[in-house]
Structures are given as C-alpha cells and as structure tokens.
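User: Here's a protein and a ligand (iron/sulfur cluster). What would the complex look like?
Assistant: Let me lay out the input and then the predicted complex.
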Amino acid sequence: MNITINNRVIQLEKPTSILGAICQAGARLQSPDCGSARQWTRHPLCPAITLAEVDGMLLSGALLGRRPAGDGMTIMTSSPTIDKALAERAKMLQDCHECFFVREMQKVLAADAESAGFINLEEWEKFDFPLRTVEPSLIHDPNRCVRCRSCVEVCRDVQTVEALRFDEKQGVLIDDRRCVRCGQCIHVCPSGAISKYRKLIEFLGCHSCPFDKPLGAMREKDETKKAWAILHDRDCHPVAQFAPAVRASLAQEFCMEPGELVTGKLYAALRRLGFKQVWDTNFAADLTIMEEGSELLQRIATAGKLPMLTSCSPGWVRFAETFFPDLLPHLSTAKSPQQMLGAVAKTFAAPRLKIDPSRMKVVSFMPCTAKKAEAARPEMNSAFRFHQAHGGGSAAESYPDVDLVLTTRELVRLLKMAGLDLRCMPEEAADPLLGAYTGAAPIFGRTGGVMEAALRTAAVLLAGAPFARLEFHALETMDGVKTAAVQVGTVTLKIAVVHGLGNVRKVCESIRSGGDFASYHFIEFMACPGGCIGGGGQPIPTNLYAKGARMAGLNKDDREMHALRMSHENPEVKTLYEIFLEKPLSYISHSLLHTHYTDRSPASAGPIP
Ligand code: SF4
Ligand code: SF4
C-alpha cells in the first residue's frame, strides 16, 4: 500500500493506523506551546492540539491512532491549515484553559437553543458582554448563555430567592444583594452539562484531562490555579480538609460507581498533591455537634431563643441574613465544621506541629459555592485574633481561618491537573490531631444528618444513655419538610428537618408569624435540595439518582464503617477539649468556634461583602 506523507511516498508492508504510518515515515505531530496548560493535559495525543491533515481534512491525534491508513492517502503533519488551527487552539487552552472540542460542543447546544427560539445564532456569536461575578462564589458568562432561563426559574421557583432576572437585551442579570451563593443555578445550566457528549469525550481518551468539562454560562469562580500556586509555594505549609459529602460524590468523576466512598483514596491523593497534613472536615462535624448540641441544651435549660436553627449551611445563613434578619437570634452561634476546622488547625494543631500559623494555608474542598463566601467573611479570622491576644503576633495584617475553598468540581480538576486518578490510589488514613471521626459525622452531608447526629449526643447528655436505635429513618427521606417529636429523657423534643430554600422560607414564615413551627425546639435548615449531597459545587449532573447514591454512601460510612457512631465518642475531639478547649461553650470554645450574623436585608443598608 502506498501513501504520501509530507509529500514523500512511502510503502506500507502491512496494515496500520494513520498514526502508525506517520511514525513509520519518521514524521512527527507538532506540539504547540500552550504554556502551563500543556503540562496539565497529559494526554500525549490530546485531540485539541495534535493534528494532521488527511486528504485535505483536519484529523485529531486521538483519531489518527484509531483510523487505518488507506492506499493512496495523502497525509500532512505540517501545513498552513494545521499551523493556523493549532495556534488558535493553543491560545484557547493557554488563555482560558479551555478545550477547543468542548467549546465546539457548546456551539452545538447553541444551535439547539436557536431551534427552541431562545437565541438568534448569528447575534449570539457576536455577543461581547463582560463577565458578571457574584464574589467570591459565582461567575455568569453572558456570551455562553443560550438564554434558556432555567437558572432564573430555579432561583425563583425552587429557592425563592429571585436573585436573577431576564432582560431581553442583556440576558440574565444578577442581583448581588439577594443572591445567597447556593449555586443551584449552576446545576440547571445546560451549557455546563454537555453530558450527551460524555461518550465522545471518553472515546477520545479525554476523561483524565482537567479541561474535559465545559465552562458553563453559570459556574463557580474557579480557584484551582490558586490552589496549585499554594501547593508549589515553598513558604506555605498547605493542609487540606474535605467535607462529608465530597467522599461520596467524587467516584462518578473517575469512572467508579456513583456514591462509592473514596475517603481513603482521597487522603492518599491529597498527600500526593502536596498537602503536608490531610485532615477531615468530619472531625469538625463531630466538634460542631458538641458545641451546637450543648447550645441547644443550654437554650432549653435557660428558656433561651427557640426554636434553635442550625447554622452549618452558609447558603441558608445568608438567606436568613437577607430575608429573615429578625430570626437571626434563633440561629445557633456555632460555626460550620469547615470554619471550626480552620480555627483549630491554626491554634491547636499549628503549635503542636511547630508551624507558624501565618504560613499554614488551610484549603477546603466543599460541595458548596456558598462556602467560598463563608470563608471570606471578615470575622472568620479567629485564629489570627487568638494569636494576637496570646502574644503570638504575626507580621501579617490578618489571615483567615480557611485560606481557600474549592468545590468538588474544582477538586476533580486539581487532581486531574496533577495526573492523579483516584482509582489508582491506595487506601490511606487521615493525619492525626484533626482527622478522626465517628459515624455521626458523614451523615452531615445529607438532609436530616445534622439533626440525627445532634439527637444521638443529646440523648446521652440529657438522659445519660443513648437511644436504642441510632438511625432516624423518617429524617432521611427526600421530603422537603420532615417533623418528629422525640422523647429525650424527660423532654419531648419537637424537631424539624427542612431542605431547599423554598421549603425553608415557608417554615421561617411560620416561625416569624408565631405559627406551628414557632413551638419547635430545633430545626435543621439546608439551602440545597437534599443537603450537601445536592450542593451547588457538586459534580454535574447532580440529579435525584446521583443524590440517592451519595446518600447511600454516607449512610454506609455511618452504619458499616465506624464502631463509634456518636460525636462525643470521637477520641480526638475528647483530646482537643481535654488539653485545649476545656469544655463545650467554654470561653475559648466561644472565641474560636462560635460566630455572629449580620443583617443584610435591603432595609438594613448593611454592607455588600
Ligand atoms: S446562587 Fe442561588 S441565589 Fe444566587 S442566583 Fe444562583 S440560585 Fe439564585
Ligand atoms: S445561564 Fe445557563 S441556565 Fe441561565 S439562561 Fe443562560 S444558559 Fe440558561
């Protein structure tokens, strides 16, 4: 068989692929300079930036290896057409960290949107709007938006926030003051969910590439490069924590079964990324129960503000601050587990590890876009204030308890940037001091879990003995509002579990107006439907099936993988109190683990953070 490669005729003895023929001819595919992005693609035949011209048609590297060379074929590995295409694609990768192929798939979506009457393709291609950001969590790119208005609908109808409105000329507009940063609009945005092309991406061998996902028109503010910089800065001591729900959400991104637990593999992967300590937000979930549970019992004993409302969902906290500021005294003052871990990492752990807390960089991996905003709250610098008060001042003006928050999606990107595949990771353990957790902690990641964990410990603190059964199956359904009356010692606790801000709004209005829920003792509120398993930072798609699988994973972690299933049994939490915090609600616990809230209602003229 004769083929022509770069104007030279060669004879092939036996059948081979086009790529095989190119190799036999001693020719090479060009590899353009895409800056740092090239080191992250890792795919040696990245179809976006390895090209050949075959009979006048551009074919990508991945296809060249699969298509057979044919008699009479003309192949060029260098030509003006290749040079032009490579330059354009390399620039896209270098400047926007965006893959040419994935971007092309978004254009197919735009054509569909034109058929549905949302846009005029000709006008859409000329859009040149600036990006719209909701600091520090979200980005809306009007130039990718196909104007389907799904985001406007979910924000209005499911979350009842009405932070988005549609303008015929400008498209989707965001009201920064109303937006609670929950990220639910991301999950419904079709431009970030080209799942029907996943098979093609896998066929091309691109699923291990960090750029295999589209930049959605609604997306989180990507801070993977910041994390990369921290990991490669010799002056930093990077430490990691990851939320309960993350361990049950990552598997689907690495071709494993949805909901499969990857806790041990993730400890190993984070170490290989360069984190010096790999801790677990689950440790702090147990700590949260100690503080929040004690606060509830104190409120009951002292006729304090009831119902007490949970405070670990930052989307809900911001919702309360914006729409129900009169209910803020009902919120538990306990910080979320993410913030508790940051505070004790830099006060309790840093000195024991002989690390200057100002050099310690706490990086969190969360299922949530609102967590980015939570960590950026100015008051979340308790460790800095603690060290100032104890004579351990630092040259830094201040430093936050948690330095950087990445969503689960960003974590996937970061792992792929480093070429790490969770499937190949060994099972390892978390680092000591802030790594141990009980079965009560992982269920924080699903609706009803905080309540269930709190009840387990409350029973022991109030009645002196645990419940005969630790599971409350009625609290783990997907119903938006769940209620129960639970006998704990001599007290009948009226409790409720609510998720999704539309449901939260109804219950808040009832409390505000002295309705049914005003007589409750304790209510768990989660901004996202399903709780953190449905968080705005979770992998796309996050649908009912994915949430069900993640919930099953977290329940398995609780029920099958831990001998200790009540937060107060956590041995590292016990040590923390014995040698540092003294007891729940102590002065030092209050200064590090509790917080306050701000009225952000439009009427308050409060600050826009
Ligand atoms: S993040 Fe939440 S509140 Fe903000 S626009 Fe999106 S859905 Fe609405
Ligand atoms: S941002 Fe996404 S969900 Fe919202 S209108 Fe545009 S394409 Fe639709």
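Summary: The pocket of iron/sulfur cluster (ligand 1) is lined by residues 138, 154-155, 159, 161, 163-164, 174, 179-185 (CB under 6 Å).
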